[in-house]
Design brief:
By secondary structure, the protein is of the alpha/beta class. The protein contains 11 helices and 17 strands. Helices cover about 25% and strands about 25% of the residues. α8 (about 290-310) packs parallel to α9.
């Protein structure tokens, strides 16, 4: 029997959310091997749970009301500088056909010297607010999901200032390419307590800052970009239908960008050296064991989506749009095939933007919404996976409609 631990979300939830260590559904067992995982699931307001005796006694806010969330606005922004596969032919031993056939990527966008992640994140956030018809002054919280902030201490606050959200709190969330899903789940829990009405979740990354542009194994993959989603609280039903979030640090070595330790190999600054004591701290370039990440992803993504569907009480056929982290077209195709999701229901824009890490899901979702592919009431399955290693999925209903 799985061990259970109660987690209290301070200031938001009166009851404890249950977490299960090492638990699996039958569908999960078929897709993943053994390992220590942490599973967290919401327990009320349209969000299903494994926890006993919670279906008729939902979590309520401090004022005694029950709140859910709805997805009401998306936005995105990418740098002006475009880097094609043909451009990369001038940097490394590769060619357009080789990259396209192995990754599905044709081009990507890279930050220029006149652009910053804060600027792009703010643009994406403003676009999401405009779609939702919400002013910056009405925003209560900004979550920035990123591994590459402009400032070591984070960039959520600078985005908050840039958009004029003067009444909002702001903080960064770091979970690599799973970051946006983790951010949406985090926002949902905070909102369910009734303390936040409008929350911006921004996924933004500039991995070009940590790419070795002479390593064809990684430089062909990554691009920069930002996407944003506005979540709005509503009394009653919740359009976050189910989710599952996991991590396994034992696999961390397969995708890293470690602190470079300045000059001293001990990872400490040499305080006594008159020159090196003032040297700048830095991080190494991205190092990835691509084959291991690929094998992990094609197993983990179908499993985590299946687990989130279980939490939502839904089946694969209920998915109107499958929006996966845009890491590799072959991973997207394999995951969709294993799940049994028709190709017409799969959202993909990796050909234009490459792997934009935490930005890839909201960037793809925004394009699908603005192209009118996503309709009011549609069920969206989002799933991310990446460094940590982390992976997670969320099943949501688009718009204000509840069923």
């Amino acid at each position: 029997m799985a061990a259970r631990v109660g987690l209290c979300l301070h200031g938001s939830l009166q009851r404890c959310v249950q977490t299960r260590l090492g638990s699996r559904s039958s569908r999960s067992k078929a897709a993943m091997g053994n390992g220590c995982v942490l599973r967290i699931r919401a327990v009320s307001g349209g969000c299903k749970s494994d926890v006993a005796n919670t279906s008729d006694s939902p979590i309520v806010s401090q004022n005694g009301r029950r709140y859910g969330v709805r997805l009401v606005g998306t936005g995105s922004a990418v740098p002006s500088q475009k880097l094609t596969n043909y451009d990369l032919e001038e940097l490394v031993d590769t060619n357009h056909e080789w990259i396209l056939s192995r990754t599905g990527i044709s081009s990507r966008h890279i930050l220029s010297k006149d652009e910053s992640l804060t600027q792009l994140g703010a643009e994406a956030a403003k676009n999401a607010l405009a779609m939702a018809g919400v002013s910056p002054e009405e925003v209560d919280l900004v979550l920035l999901c990123t591994s590459t902030p402009d400032d070591l201490f984070g960039s959520a606050c600078t985005i908050q200032a840039e958009i004029g959200a003067t009444k909002a709190a702001a903080f960064d969330v770091t979970a690599a390419c799973s970051g946006f899903v983790v951010g949406v789940v985090t926002a949902t829990h905070l909102m369910r307590g009734g303390n936040f009405r409008n929350v911006l979740v921004v996924g933004a990354d500039a991995l070009s800052r940590y790419v070795d542009w002479r390593d064809r194994g990684t430089c062909i993959l990554f691009g920069d970009g930002c996407g944003a989603l506005l979540l709005q609280a509503q009394e009653g039903e919740c359009n976050m239908l189910g989710f599952d979030v996991r991590s396994d640090g034992a696999l961390n070595k397969n995708l890293v960008a470690k602190f470079d330790g300045c000059i001293d190999e001990s990872n400490m600054k040499p305080m006594s050296d008159p020159i090196q004591a003032s040297s700048m701290g830095s991080y190494q370039n991205i190092s990835m064991t691509g084959s291991e990440i690929f094998k992990f992803a094609v197993r983990a993504v179908p499993q985590i989506v299946g687990s989130a569907l279980d939490a939502a009480g839904l089946e694969v056929e209920h998915i109107d749009h499958l929006v996966l982290h845009q890491a590799n077209q072959r991973i997207i195709d394999s995951a969709a095939q294993r799940l049994g999701v028709p190709q017409d229901n799969v959202v993909s824009n990796i050909a234009k933007y490459g792997n934009t890490s935490a930005a890839s899901i909201p960037l793809a979702l925004d394009e699908a919404v603005r192209e009118h592919k996503v309709k009011e009431g549609d069920v969206i399955a989002m799933a991310g996976f990446g460094a940590g290693l982390t992976w997670g999925a969320a099943i949501c209903r688009w718009g204000k409609e509840t069923k």
